[in-house]
Amino acid sequence: MSTGSEKGGSSPLGATPSPDGVNFSVFSRHATGVELLLFDGIDDTKAASVVRLDPSANRTYYYWHVFVPNVRPGQLYGYRVDGPFDPWSGMRFDPTKVLLDPYGRGVVVPEAYGRDAARGPGDNAGTAMKSVVVDVCAYDWEGDTPLQRPSSRTIVYEMHVRGFTRHPSSGLSDRTRGTFAGLIEKIPYLQRLGITAVELLPVFQFDPQDSPPGLVNYWGYAPVSFFAPHRGYSSRRDPLGPVDEFRDMVKALHRAGLEVILDVVFNHTAEGDHSGPTLSFRGLDNTTYYILEADRSRYANYSGTGNTLNGNHPIVRRMIVDSLRYWVDVMHVDGFRFDLASILERDESGDVMPNPPVLWDIESDPVLAGTKLIAEAWDAAGLYQVGTFVGDSWKEWNGRFRDDVRSFFRGEEGSIERFADRLIGSPSLYGHKQREPEQSVNFVTCHDGFTLNDLVSYDRKHNEANGEDNRDGADDNRSWNCGVEGPTEDPDIDRLRTRQVKNFFTVTMLSAGMPMMLMGDEVRRTQGGNNNAYCQDNETNWFDWALLAKRADVHRFVSVLNARRVLRDVEHEEKRVALNQLLLQEDITWHGVKLGEPDWRHSSHSLALTVRLTMDRTHYHIILNAYWEPLEFELPLVANGARHPWRRWIDTFLDCPHDIVEWEQAPSVLGHRYRAEPRSVVVLFA
Predict the structure, then answer these.
(1) Residues 608/590, Cβ–Cβ less than 8 Å
(2) Domain-ending residue, one of 104, 132, 160
(3) How many domains does the chain have?
(4) For residue 1, pLDDT beyond 50
(5) 639 within domain boundaries
(6) Residue 607 above 90 pLDDT?
């Protein structure tokens, strides 16, 4: 042990500063020796100081710890860990590799960083990422707290921090484009759009090099740390910059009334399979952090990315919950969307557990009470749990909503009954749980798949740029190109595509549940038909701000639609009124072209419904015509037998600004019928 260092304590894990120095603590059950390395510079090839931990003095249980006086926030550090290298038993210790602290609050990346050096033999100090000592209390939140907005008044905007402002058309400086600071500058746009929460694709430090040769991991589903914000999203170059810039962003979004939801990846890491690099967890305690196959030299791969975190191991469970608590308590985020959440139901053998401890730990944690918890309720190995995910407070990405709404509007036969179920909150999926309607997160598009523009412009995926001969990405897209594959100069086809986009938005926002939209869909952003653009850090993924002028009609439509959506009733949520109870209260009547005669036949392409909302005593009549010809729909009577003085709020067939109007300016509808034009949605109210 180096001169001046002290025994330190096992708790808390990570690097904890105090006025006199820093306490370091890390877990490793099977290590035989641990060295703490202190670096002066990011690109240094040697540590300025090495602190050797004595197993008899600096280890309590399996926690290795030391207190180093006179160390300050901003200090760069890492670990070297010795132990058995025996892949056949799952042991992969390599004392030549510099390892990140699993609890490190900051990460720096040297100019010469490379995965190959962490994968091959020999010392990699000059090319390794290093952890940063952070004083998490050294920030003035100015009274900020998580917003805890009711889910019934939430509209989620899924976005990529870099892609949102990286395009030159964003008008931002080179320094702030593609950063947390750049997002702050665009908050007025988000407010005008009418969304209430941003759901950020992964912002934990990730490895951009975890990708095919010549490409980059753009989405960020390749974490190397669960506590440090991604350095590449910071406009600041100092070691502590990303932490404070992230908090500046959260504070600014909260001031604007917008919640912050993080897409979190607790199912795998960037260390990959048996041939992957040693960055942190693999070199600290491989058998603890990962699910291994019966052949212990191989990793279970339920994530489809090479490895699977051992989420229900007590140590990993604690790390996951500690991470979530940190981002809520210290970084003030409002919620989390869990990538491939079903993996967290698997035990150390990969079997699905009826009551997975990690999920119940998350659900029952008092710090996380009131935090939005959203599950992607499937994994890459075939486990699909939409409608059956465990817990009482988890919301779910409703993949059935996406599929069935797409099927209906492309004119697919046999979709009418499933589509109707999605409109009213998917009771066939969620009714048995006696849960609120917002358990269903409704979306038609997300980062993974076609954009909304491409959904109506391509019959097939076009992923050639990904370098896998178009084999990657989903084949079941349920898309329709409206007659021409890709871009077109035909104004009739373009109008049809715009109408379909508006149809999708209208149904998403009006259906029971919590709606989510994808960044750029409001201006028909395209990815050129690429439905798996995870490796494209270029204009394929960036938000082109010139589209605001080109697609002003769609942008206006979405903004007006959102403005009305956020006025929904929250009383049912506060009283935890179940979806089934709510459906009984709201008095829904189904129709076809004739009142009270819905057409549930396999060949049906149209539907209408009348909804009476008890809160504001407003009646809605919604007509959905996915047929390729116009249809005349009878309009219903009011309770006293007279014809209702219906007013038209939405008709997606009409040109802007008549396609959607401000509530107070809605024109009256005369007569006993309404002609719904081909492939259109009409919303009347009284």
Answers:
(1) yes
(2) 132
(3) 2
(4) no
(5) yes
(6) yes
Exposure of 547 in the CB half-sphere (CA atoms within 13 A): 18
Q: How far apart are CA 653 and CA 681, in angstroms?
A: 8
Using alpha carbons, list the distances in angstroms from residue 164 to 168, 179, 360, 470, 518: 11, 9, 34, 26, 11
Does residue 597 lie in a domain region? yes
Using DSSP bridges, classify how beta strands 91-92 and 85-86 pair: parallel, antiparallel or unpaired. Answer: antiparallel
Report helix angle 416-423 to 399-409, nearest 10. 130
Strand runs (DSSP E) across 112-245, as ranges?
130-132, 156-159, 197-200
Contact 332, 247 (CB under 8 A): yes
Q: Which residues are catalytic?
A: 339, 376
Rounded distance, CA 565 to CA 154, Å? 9
- Alpha carbon of 114 to those of 73, 210, 277, 679: distances in Å? 26, 10, 9, 52
Q: Report d(CA 408, CA 480) in Å as an integer.
A: 11
Q: What is the DSSP letter of 677?
A: P
| Contact call for residues 95 and 33 (beta carbons, < 8 A) | yes
CATH code for the domain in which residue 114 is found: 2.60.40.10
Mean pLDDT of 536-561: 98
Q: Please, are residues 506 and 652 in contact by the beta-carbon 8 Å criterion?
A: yes
Task: Spell out the residues 6+ positions from residue 207 whose beta carbon is closer than 8 angstroms to its own.
Answer: 115, 217, 222, 224, 270, 279
| Among 110, 132, 154, residue at a domain's last position | 132
What is the pLDDT, as a whole number, of residue 579? 65
Cβ proximity of 466 and 527 under 8 Å: no
The residues near 284 (Cβ < 8 Å, ≥ 6 apart) are 26, 27, 28, 31, 79, 81, 99, 102
619 close to 685: Cβ distance less than 8 angstroms = yes
Task: Write down the pLDDT at residue 574.
Answer: 60
Q: Structure tokens of 459?
A: 């019959």
Per-residue pLDDT at 637: 82
Residue 676 placed within a domain: yes
pLDDT in tens, 362-386: 999 999 999 999 999 999 999 999 9
Domain that holds residue 69: 14-132
Name the token pair of 646.
């219906």
Cβ–Cβ under 8 Å, residues 258 and 571 = no
594 C-beta neighbours (distance < 10 Å), count: 12
Does residue 170 belong to any structural domain of this protein? Answer: no
The SS3 of residue 292 is strand
- Would you tell me how many other CB atoms lie within 10 Å of the CB of residue 116? 10
Helix axis angle, 314-329 to 357-364, nearest 10°: 30
Closest by alpha carbon to 678, among 632, 629, 634, 623? 629
Q: Tokens 């409703």 — which residue?
A: 398
Least Cα distance to 9 among 55, 66, 53, 51 occurs for 66
- Structural tokens at position 512: 């029971």
The residue written with tokens 């010549």 in the block is: 214
What's the CATH code of the domain at 598?
2.60.40.1180
> How many Å apart are CA 27 and CA 59, to the nearest integer?
9
What distance in Å separates the CA atoms of residue 525 and residue 544, rounded to the nearest whole number? 7
| Stated length of the chain | 686
